[in-house]
Amino acid sequence: MIDDPDDEIDYHIAHHIVRVHQKREEAIVPAFNTAQLKRYIAYAKSLKPKLSSEARKVLVESYVALRRGDTAPGSRVAYRMTVRQLEALIRLSEAIARSYLETQVQPRHVDVARKLLKTSIISVESTEIDLSEFQEGTRDLGDGSGNGPDAPAQDDAQPIDAASDAQFSNANSGASSADKQREKLVVSDEYFQKVTQALIMCLRQHEEAVMREGDGLVGMRQRDLIMWYVHQQFDENNDISEVEAASEIKKVKTIIESLIRREGYLIVLDDGVQAATEGEGARQAVNRNDRILAVAPNYDHAAL
Prior knowledge:
3-stranded antiparallel sheet, two-stranded parallel sheet, elongated
């Protein structure tokens, strides 16, 4: 439990402790004696309260609300809300009903249980997010041709496109990155949220345009999504260097991987894996940049 400051509760606790020290046994005048308290506890433990239909509905709504708050953009908690916490919520509700000596769990019991569970969730305040585990290996970066696959070539953004070529085609750069120690990649929470909101906005606008026109692919190729973001960021800065553009592309790609695998904000409609050519028993290597991405159906768009 989290011991949050509360003026009223703190006052009563401090008043009781000081009074006990001042008057000793005379300060303690319990409403029940020990025998009565034992009989109350024994009887309460013998009860097996059942969930009422109203309580079941509140339980479901409470769990969904806790899950939604767990995955909202900017949410950082010590652990994820799962069905195990739902079971804990049910057991707490039943225990609270027993404490009132009732045979049915009512919505008010669920409300108390929800508040108890919610206060036990520790928020992790962090200004930095470690994305090291989501960096992709060099074998996934390109098609091995030495040229950037389908990289957009706009005259006013040559440094960015040159950087994208370098990022998108490193398959023949030597040993696999799995054999190399990956460098640590950490971004600020503010930067992570900014990129996340921009990418989701772009995907939603693209989806709406496709639905309105009734033609085209609902999702967006990862390569196109990355280049859209990079061009948006550097549109007013033509002096951007290839190194800076390559660094930005790397971070955006890693954030996308996190949004798919950890946050669950994006889904992969097409993983970009091509069928094996005739006579070959293996499939061609996966190129992450060819994946078709879309916003997850359960993403809370109102939070954007």
